[in-house]
Amino acid sequence: xxxxxxxxxxxxxxxxxxxxxxxxxxxxxxxxxxxxxxxxxxxxxxxxxxxxxxxxxxxxxxxxxxxxxxxxxxxxxxxxxxxxxxxxxxxxxxxxxxxxxxxxxxxxxxxxxxxxxxxxxxxxxxxxxxxxxxxxxxxxxxxxxxxxxxxxxxxxxxxxxxxxxxxxxxxxxxxxxxxxxxxxxxxxxxxxxxxxxxxxxxxxxxxxxxxxxxxxxxxxxxxxxxxxxxxxxxxxxxxxxxxxxxxxxxxxxxxxxxxxxxxxxxxxxxxxxxxxxxxxxxxxxxxxxxx
Length: 291
Ligand SMILES: Cc1cc2nc3c(=O)[nH]c(=O)nc-3n(C[C@H](O)[C@H](O)[C@H](O)COP(=O)(O)OP(=O)(O)OC[C@H]3O[C@@H](n4cnc5c(N)ncnc54)[C@H](O)[C@@H]3O)c2cc1C
Known about the structure:
The protein is built from 11 helices and 14 strands. By secondary structure, it is α+β, with helices and mostly antiparallel strands. It folds into 3 domains: 7-53, Uridine Diphospho-n-acetylenolpyruvylglucosamine Reductase, domain 2 (2-Layer Sandwich), CATH 3.30.43; 63-173, 2-Layer Sandwich (Uridine Diphospho-n-acetylenolpyruvylglucosamine Reductase, domain 3), CATH 3.30.465.10; 180-290, 2-Layer Sandwich (Enolase-like, domain 1), CATH 3.30.390.50. The strands form 4 sheets. It has a 5-stranded antiparallel beta sheet with strand order 4-5-10-6-7. A 4-stranded antiparallel beta sheet has the order 11-12-13-14. The radius of gyration is 19 Å and the shape is globular. The protein binds flavin-adenine dinucleotide.
């Protein structure tokens, strides 16, 4: 694999890294694990003058949990670390399932969850669950930090609302409300070790009468950015959960999906799979919420 020529930068602090982003705006790219970036470089999809690794910046690889604020996953936390973290498995096991569904164990030992998010691929495995769970990206410009709700983060394939001088330093996932359940569902042509043809994240919260109090459904690989199944969410809210209402929500989700046909799946197949996987995800999330 040959790469285009670039100058490799490896800052050792956040302020240094953000200053380099500012200085070389338009000609610099960030690398975390590099599992997406190196492929893009080798395909000449990007030709930066500078490639900046953030791996030497200390403190970005932590995963922490606090009952009031929830989980914080650092920018350098590996997919494999998220998949196996006791904190994640205890407090948000669907994030571990999504990380596990990503690529191979070799890739998961290099790539990061934040890299998967910042790469902003519509089919990324870790995004739908994070969207369903109200995650927020913490961005730093070296001096100040801001939180970007994940619903406002994706602008298009490969495009995010990070400013040119900002690095995503962590992703925050708030704690679940009582009587909540989450699910992640994926289908891909090769079944294992493949990019999703469709993937769905769902979060369902029940009220004291076991009716749906709130629901968030995120659909991947069916539009240029992750899409919320808004019609299905509105339909289910305040409604009793049954096989019929979950099936109806699945059908409404398919109406909100706007997939294209490509090598992985046709538009028609994707629509059908949105219906099937949404119903399946809601059923599983309901099961967790009830218990
Ligand atoms: C063989 C193979 C199989 C794969 N299979 C899957 C799969 O099944 N599912 C899937 O979803 N993905 C898959 N991927 C894609 C990739 O492994 C993941 O997206 C991974 O999580 C990327 O993380 P990374 O740390 O390597 O990101 P990098 O490659 O380092 O970066 C990815 C992008 O995000 C930006 N970026 C990274 N970190 C930050 C940050 N902290 N702040 C701002 N910008 C940042 C980079 O500039 C770049 O544009 C696969 C890749 C390969 C090579």
